Structure formats: structure tokens, C-alpha cells
């Protein structure tokens, strides 16, 4: 009986020791796996440290459509303004009644729409006095007053600008020769119109023209 008991006790001690060793190995393996999975690899660390070059190397570019649309709109507006402007073929030209007062001489320069559709005038006409042969007398008229607004002329309607000079003797500056004609470039036009000046003479070195306004003034 004594031999059997010793053998059984030794077997239990062997089995118990084996279980303890196996448990220790299992815990060690689990700890090693946990540590390995929780630490990033060197390749992952390198990838995380690199900037996102795919986004940085392709910055957004502004679209050119807005600039192109603006330029096209301006070009269309300019074309429409040019087509709406009164031309020399649309109008007749004459001088109105001379107004003399306080040493000043003012003469309306009258444009009348003789066309079949409405047109517009805006700004200062270019005006020169000429002799019968077309040679210029003195200098072209300077501008007097503000630029003013656009004048819409329906067929048969008129607009005017005012020529201004002074009487002889108001200034020591000598008068120009008497003129026979007045040559006029309507605002925005590259073609001139001519009408009789009625012998208008510039004195005192003063010769100006206002911007175009609605109406004929006689």
C-alpha cells in the first residue's frame, strides 16, 4: 500500500507541474501578441509621418469662365451702344437762333433725327469754323460744362449743343475771320456734317461748345 500511494502522489505532482508550465507559456504568448499588435510597424509610422502630397500637389484653379463672360458682356454692350448711336446719315444739322446778351454770343447747334427709328446722342460734338473752301478758321471749339447724359431721339425729334463766343471789344484779343460754314462731328462719330455758320465770328479767343441736350432751342 505504501508503494502505490507514493506513485500516485508523484504522478499528481508531475501533472500539476505540467499544467503550471503550460499556463505560463500561454500567458507569455498572449502578452507578446498584444504588444505586437498595439505597436505600429515601422512602415505604418513612415506612412503616417508623410504629408498628403496627393492633395497638396493639385491646388484648385480658378475657373476662367467668369472672366470670359464679363469680357463678352462688355463687348456686347459696346456693340449695342454703337449700333444705337445716331450717325451722320440719320441726322440733319442746322444753327438755331442766335442769343446775344451781356457781351456773350450763344448759338444752338441743332441735330434732328431724320431716320425711321430712334437713336441716341451723348457727349460733346467736335466743332470747327471753316471758310467756303473748307479751310479751318482758328481752333476747334473747347468744351464747356459737364458731360451730361444720353439723349434719346425719336424720329423727327431734335437735340442741341450750344456754341459760345463773345462780342467784339469785350477783350483785347483780336477776333477771327468771319466764317462761312461750321463743320461738326456728332458725339462718337468719325464722320462730319457741315452747315452754314451764318457768318459767325469768334472774338476774345473764346470758342466753346456744350454737351448735347434734348430739344432744339429755336
From TrEMBL:
<dbReference type="InterPro" id="IPR025326">
    <property type="entry name" value="DUF4232"/>
</dbReference>
<feature type="signal peptide">
    <location>
        <begin position="1"/>
        <end position="29"/>
    </location>
</feature>
<keyword id="KW-0732">Signal</keyword>
<feature type="compositionally biased region" description="Low complexity">
    <location>
        <begin position="63"/>
        <end position="83"/>
    </location>
</feature>
<dbReference type="Pfam" id="PF14016">
    <property type="entry name" value="DUF4232"/>
</dbReference>
<feature type="region of interest" description="Disordered">
    <location>
        <begin position="33"/>
        <end position="84"/>
    </location>
</feature>
<feature type="compositionally biased region" description="Low complexity">
    <location>
        <begin position="33"/>
        <end position="51"/>
    </location>
</feature>
<protein>
    <submittedName>
        <fullName>DUF4232 domain-containing protein</fullName>
    </submittedName>
</protein>
<feature type="domain" description="DUF4232">
    <location>
        <begin position="86"/>
        <end position="212"/>
    </location>
</feature>
